[in-house]
Design goal:
The protein is α/β, with parallel strands linked by helices and 419 residues long. The protein has 18 helices and eleven strands. The chain has two domains: 237 residues, 3-Layer(aba) Sandwich (Rossmann fold); 87 residues, no CATH class. Strands 3-2-1-4-5-7-6 form a seven-stranded mixed β-sheet, with helices on both faces.
Length: 419
């Protein structure tokens, strides 16, 4: 194992955990049949939420995956770059040799040639001498470290001017039941026991878990509970597992000299979306964004993580004008025709924020507009097509503005950067 600066007992146990049970549990053979998609580090999200859809696609993107684990984020980003013919490099750093070997095997299965693997600790990036990066992914890592502030500061030091990051940390309310189980297992299966012994005890507890246990009531953990030994270990036996409220998360970013360009998905942090009462909504709109996000987290109760795209304070890029007739909208992932099919007869789109489904109103014309978005047509070309369907330009402008900014906040429609 590569030497790293943080060497307290829990950190030593954490290193042993990920060497014994690399997380998430992945089989490289599965790369032949599917690509796992998520946030952060989706290429279209980086283009829009970090660079405002203004950074040319021809400009090489140098990305660091800090704590890559078995490689989900790295494989997704490198694959998307390869498919789009985007120049650049994805550098993966992790201190677990076992996890890196799995990520490397996945990359080999896909024939990815612009991805590089480095064994080492993100808490000692300077010693690795990797240079600067336009984009840094730190997903599911900071909350396990002895000193998250110091680790984040080290990542900021590796960020190139004008660059940005995608960060994910655990959130407390959506993980209700987890920390109770961790407390119990810390007594039943102490950290100084071998990982295999601890896992055996956890499995025995899960087989006899009381019906009243809060973990049984929480539907947020299918990926962990069905994710084999590695998933169960990471959820219940991790020796260090912090959780951040959205306010504490924003404070962590602030201390590092960072500011959020978006919390993912932005609409999820707007309590007005699931509080239709007009008097409540009037009060909500008077509050600053941070207070609105705090209320949303407290009331929804199901946020198990917080994901943010961030840049250095004062360097945030204003997104390109989505209403310009030269702008090119692009579906983030789900084709427009499929999203249109999901719309209900009352022109609302049922949208799932985890286990919470909220009806999101859209203009009636969105049903015919969404299938036209292909990442190539400009807004002007969309307007021309709708004009042939009886929607004049002034009407189109209102329809498009409402459609785009509603779906942008759901992270479903973004903008294509220039070639």
């Amino acid at each position: 194992m590569t030497e790293h600066t943080s060497s307290d007992t829990r950190d030593t146990e954490l290193a042993a955990q990920y060497e014994a049970y690399p997380y998430p549990e992945r089989n490289p053979q599965d790369e032949a049949r599917r690509l796992l998609i998520g946030s952060p580090s989706h290429l279209r999200e980086i283009d829009y939420w970090v660079f405002g859809a203004k950074r040319p696609r021809s400009q090489p993107l140098r990305a660091l995956i800090a704590g890559c684990g078995t490689g989900d984020g790295a494989i997704m980003l490198a694959t998307q770059m390869a498919r789009a013919g985007r120049p650049g490099e994805v550098v993966c750093v992790d201190r677990s040799r076992h996890a890196l070997s799995i990520a490397q095997a996945r990359a080999t299965m896909r024939g990815l040639t612009t991805i590089r693997f480095v064994e080492g600790s993100l808490t000692d990036l300077g010693a690795l001498d990797l240079g600067l990066f336009d984009y840094i992914d730190c997903c599911g890592v900071l909350h396990h470290l002895p000193d998250p502030d110091a680790a984040l500061a080290g990542l900021v030091a590796a960020l190139a001017p004008g660059g940005g990051m995608g960060v994910m940390v655990y959130a407390p309310y959506g993980r209700t039941g987890v920390y109770m189980m961790q407390d119990a297992l810390e007594q039943l299966a102490p950290f100084d026991e071998k990982p295999a012994t601890r896992l055996d005890i956890a499995k025995r507890v899960m087989r006899h878990l009381p019906a009243t246990a809060w973990l049984r009531q929480n539907g947020n953990f299918g990926d962990h509970l069905s994710g084999g030994d590695a998933g169960l270990y990471d959820l219940l036996l991790n020796p260090r597992d912090r959780a951040y409220t959205v306010g504490a998360f924003l404070d962590l970013l602030d201390r590092a000299g960072l500011e959020s360009t978006c919390l993912m998905e932005p609409a999820r942090y707007d309590p007005a979306l699931f509080l239709p009462d007009p008097k409540l909504r009037a009060r909500i709109t008077q509050l600053p964004a941070r207070e609105q996000a705090t209320i949303a987290e407290s009331l929804a109760g199901n946020m198990a993580t917080h994901v943010a795209y961030v840049v250095r304070k004062g360097t945030s890029v204003t997104p390109a004008d989505a209403c310009s007739f030269d702008a090119v909208p692009v579906m983030r992932e789900i084709p427009g025709i499929e999203l249109a099919k999901q719309m209900r007869p009352d022109h609302t789109l049922p949208f799932a924020f985890g286990t919470l489904v909220v009806p999101v109103p859209l203009p009636p014309q969105a049903r015919g507009l969404l299938p036209l978005i292909d990442g190539e047509r400009t807004v002007g070309e969309l307007a021309a097509i709708l004009a042939t369907r009886g929607v004049p330009e002034n009407k189109f402008h209102a329809v498009w503005q409402e459609t785009f900014y509603t779906l942008e906040r759901l992270n479903r429609v973004l903008l294509q950067p220039p070639a």
